[in-house]
Each structure stands twice: as structure tokens, then as C-alpha cells.
Amino acid sequence: MGFKTIRIGTRDSILATWQAEHVAAGLKQHGFKTELVFIKTEGDQVLDTPLPLLGGKGVFTKALDDALLRDEVDIAVHSFKDIPTQTPEGLAVIAILEREDPRDVLVARKDADFLTDPEYTATIATSSHRRGGQWLGQYPKHRLTDIRGNVHTRLRKLNENNWDGAIFAAAGLKRVGLDGNISAYLDWMIPAPAQGAVAVMARDNRPDLNRAIGLLHHATTALCTRVERRFLQVLEGGCSAPLGAFAEMYGGQVQFKAVLTSLDGHRREEIAMNMPVEHAASMADRAAEAMMERDTVMDILAEIRKDPE
Ligand SMILES: NCc1[nH]cc(CCC(=O)O)c1CC(=O)O
């Protein structure tokens, strides 16, 4: 197809590198040559600030967006959940790869008995408002503490500090072979929109690339993550909102569920909706509108906007 080497932009964390190499391996199977170009983002460089305070949107993607726009790379590989719902001018998501396990998991430093002891005040490390809000809803006596950094850094910090556990994405641990650390799968916790999926971005004027990269596209993952991200966008969540959204395909139906909590976990609003796959396009809007009809939802959203900390 007359391609030169496809330059793949990626962050340099072990997880990001795994994801970029995964894309490279897929392209190689179709006869393409690739090279990885490592780029540091604000999210990698500033490690002492909780993510929600780093300006939130795009901290892991902006430097890669700029590299695409300057034509220093042909594509950029991201965890889809790190990509803001508003795509920058001139760029497009051109493929979404098959989703890995979407669940959140607990890595406990000691044995995880404390989960069943209602009197024990555990300290759980997470900087995610979504994880924190849902966790405190389930375990109101626990305390949260901030933790930042890539998967390896966070596991190290958990071991160095006197915390009881930390919450991770199963997908991140599985991809880098660290899933042996998992103490519990949090089936009750609703994941971040697009958690576990990898997305490829490119400039939007590269139809040649669209065809090549499109070979890696996974239609069901794309459909489900579109519903989740649209829901996030309508609720104007941004990546730091205490909002979970998850869709899966089951027997021709899209099964969707979402949750919004207050930061302290005291208030929690859930929605669940099933629709035939033909109607998936309108599903997120309907679910979001139904949520916004509830006073509690509007109260929680107002509180978050006023006080993003
Ligand atoms: N917030 C950073 C981030 N972005 C994507 C993943 C995990 C992989 C994925 O969700 O695809 C992680 C780490 C985590 O949440 O533990």
C-alpha cells in the first residue's frame, strides 16, 4: 500500500508502551512497518498533584495531540478513558480496539478481611472521584488518600505507605502482567466510561491511515464505549467527575448502567437501561436526560462544579 513506516506516538509508561506495541503488532500482521515515538505528557511529569486538580481534561493526551498536529507522529495510542469527549480540532479517533476487562479492582496490602469488618476504618488510596465516591458509598467508615503515578508507581507507593489498599483498573494490571496483585474484583463498582479500551487517534485528513488502522477496529467495543462517552459528554462530566458508565452487548441488546455520586459518597444516583442495538445511538441521551430530571442529580452536579476538589 505504499506506506512508509507508521510512526506511533505513545507515553513512555509500561502500560502505555504495552498498548502501543499491541497496536504495532496488529499493524505488522497486516504487513505494515511501525516505529514507536515516546512523548511525555503533563500527567507523566507532574506527579505530586491529584489528577482532578491538574486541569483535568487531556493531561495524558495534549502533548500527543500536539505531536500529531505537528506531523511528528502518524497515530497516537491512548487508553480511551483518558481521551476527553471533545476531540481537538483536526484530530479524530480512527480505531477502537477490543476491550480488556473493564472492572475496577482492589489491591490490598494486607489480607482484605477489613472489607467484611464494619468497625475497621480502612485507608484506601485513590485520586479518582469516581472510585472514591462509589467506595465511600459502600464503606462509609473508610478514609481515602491520594495516590498518583502509573500502575507500577502506585503499587510501589501502596507498599511503602501504611494504607490498606488501592483501587486500579483490572485492564491496566492484566496488560502488564501484574494481575497477581489483585485482591478483589469490584463487580459492584461502575467503571469509567471507556475503561479497558484502547483508542487510536490521527489527524482527520489521513484517509490512507484510516483504512490501515481501521483493520484493528472492534465494532462492539466501539458501540459500547460510544454510549458511555456520550453519556459523560451530555452530563458534562469531564474525566474527573464522580461518574461511572458502562455498556455491554447481550443477545442483541445494549445493557447500560451509570452512576453519579457526591464526592463523599453519601449521595448516589443510578440508572439502568436496555435497548436493542439498533437504538443504541439515542440511548445515552435518553439515559442522561432521565438522570437530569432528578433533583439530586442536579444538586450533585452543581456541587461538583462549585468545588472540583
Ligand atoms: N487513570 C490512568 C489510567 N488510564 C487508563 C488506565 C487503565 C487502563 C484502562 O482503563 O484502559 C489507567 C490506570 C488506572 O485507572 O488504574
TrEMBL record:
The gene is hemC. Pfam families: Porphobil_deam, Porphobil_deamC. Transmembrane segments: none annotated. The lineage of its organism: Bacteria, Pseudomonadati, Balneolota, Balneolia, Balneolales. Tetrapolymerization of the monopyrrole PBG into the hydroxymethylbilane pre-uroporphyrinogen in several discrete steps. It catalyses: 4 porphobilinogen + H2O = hydroxymethylbilane + 4 NH4(+). Pathway: Porphyrin-containing compound metabolism; protoporphyrin-IX biosynthesis; coproporphyrinogen-III from 5-aminolevulinate: step 2/4. One of its GO terms (molecular function) is hydroxymethylbilane synthase activity. Binds 1 dipyrromethane group covalently. HAMAP family: Porphobil_deam. GO terms for biological process: protoporphyrinogen IX biosynthetic process. Monomer. This is Porphobilinogen deaminase.
